């Protein structure tokens, strides 16, 4: 759409009379919409406001632009877009006054407000991603991928704006692997945008409301914080406009998964006493199942004594688990290998859906497409994307280490 608008601008330069103001209308529309993120919940609201402002501008120029093809193309395009987005003709519009458009409860507008006040360009905010799924696999804000034990309650995030704590329980007897059965999220009070809001989910109870029964924070007009239920009892999203943060919580099988996108400057806004955050610093070394992404080959006889029940937990073999995971994930990245590991460890096919959904959440929330996929590496540093030997050795080592 923006490319089309730039085409309009070019056409305007070439053939519009100076009395026709369609070029200014189009320039304002591009300005209103260029910063919007289609993944955010308030996108349609802000886009409709910009379309109404665009429409009002074309109406004001209807006489001087009469007979101009670019003008009439813009009018038709506006009508089509308003129909597609279900925009009402009446309603609020975007304003050309930067002071009026600044919304203190919209993080995405903070940069523009600072530029307007200080007159200097500031870098666009950098967003980071963290995710937790399976038994359990952690992707940190630094894009480090770890498999950990972390049994009990652990903080994923704990900064000046947001706290997220997860509780993990053992998955199968005799294994150190755990999975998440409880998530507590605290959105801390922020200026006039929202009071403190607490959300809690446990296995088989994934509510679409905060613990106080409300579904939003802030007044009815701003709704700086709100919950959207995507699948009843299985999948909810939380959108916090005031801190530019989006959180996805899902239940798959008997366990929960979490994915979050948050601005870097807010992620790093924490005190020294808050340094135990799995999303920021990863799992403590004593809680790691993997070893910095590498798995040492232990002595077989020490791991599998006679009568060991290590294989009793899973009905999958390496081949059948690989086939099952490949049905959902075609790329053999770390999510694929995590899926195979979880199937061999638990025998629970729901972990396949958990790994697949975790990758989908990455694609929805991670800002850099080139970093969506993480591939395991050998000790020499070469990527082992398709090495059957490495895959088999790595998976077997993972299984053996879990049953230590």
From TrEMBL:
What sequence ranges are listed for the domain Repulsive guidance molecule C-terminal?
Answer: 127-367
**Where is it mainly found?**
membrane
- Subcellular location, in the record's words? Cell membrane
Q: How does it sit in the membrane?
A: Lipid-anchor; GPI-anchor
Name the coiled-coil region(s).
none
The segment(s) forming the Repulsive guidance molecule N-terminal domain are 20-89
Q: What GO molecular functions are on record for this protein? A: coreceptor activity
Family to which this protein belongs: Belongs to the repulsive guidance molecule (RGM) family.
Q: What is this protein called?
A: RGMB protein
Q: Which organism is it from?
A: Mionectes macconnelli (McConnell's flycatcher)
């Amino acid at each position: 759409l923006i490319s089309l608008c730039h085409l309009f601008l070019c056409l305007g330069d070439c053939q519009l009379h100076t009395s026709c103001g369609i070029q200014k209308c189009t320039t304002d529309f591009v300005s209103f919409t260029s910063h919007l993120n289609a993944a955010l919940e308030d996108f349609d609201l802000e886009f409709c406001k910009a379309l109404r402002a665009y429409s009002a501008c074309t109406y004001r120029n209807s006489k001087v632009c009469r007979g101009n093809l670019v003008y009439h193309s813009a009018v038709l395009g506006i009508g089509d877009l308003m129909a597609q987005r279900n925009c009402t003709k009446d309603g609020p519009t975007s304003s050309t006054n930067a002071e009026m458009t600044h919304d203190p409860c919209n993080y995405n507008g903070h940069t523009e407000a600072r530029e307007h006040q200080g007159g200097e360009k500031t870098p666009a905010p950098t967003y980071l991603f963290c995710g937790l799924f399976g038994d359990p696999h952690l992707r940190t804000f630094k894009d480090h991928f770890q498999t950990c034990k972390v049994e009990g309650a652990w903080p994923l995030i704990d900064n000046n704006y947001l706290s997220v704590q997860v509780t993990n329980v053992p998955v199968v007897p005799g294994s150190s692997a755990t999975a998440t059965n409880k998530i507590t999220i605290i959105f801390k009070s922020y200026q006039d945008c929202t009071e403190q809001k607490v959300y809690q989910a446990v296995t088989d109870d994934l509510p679409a409301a905060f613990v106080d029964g409300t579904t939003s924070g802030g007044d009815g007009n701003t709704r700086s914080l709100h919950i959207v239920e995507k699948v009843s009892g299985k999948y909810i999203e939380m959108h916090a406009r005031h801190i530019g943060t989006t959180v996805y919580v899902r239940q798959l099988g008997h366990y929960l998964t979490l994915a979050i996108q948050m601005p870097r400057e807010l992620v790093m806004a924490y005190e020294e006493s808050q340094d135990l955050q799995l999303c920021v610093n990863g799992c403590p070394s004593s809680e790691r199942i993997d070893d910095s992404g590498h798995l040492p080959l232990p002595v077989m006889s020490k791991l599998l004594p006679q009568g060991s029940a290590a294989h009793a937990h899973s009905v999958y073999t390496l081949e059948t688990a690989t086939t099952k995971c490949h049905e959902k994930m075609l790329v053999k990245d770390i999510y694929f290998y995590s899926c195979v590991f979880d199937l061999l460890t638990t025998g629970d096919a729901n972990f396949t859906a958990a790994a697949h959904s975790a990758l989908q959440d990455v694609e929805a929330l991670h800002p850099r497409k080139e970093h969506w996929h993480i591939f395991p590496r050998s000790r020499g540093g070469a990527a082992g994307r398709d090495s059957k030997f490495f895959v088999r050795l790595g998976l077997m080592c993972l299984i053996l280490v879990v049953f230590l």
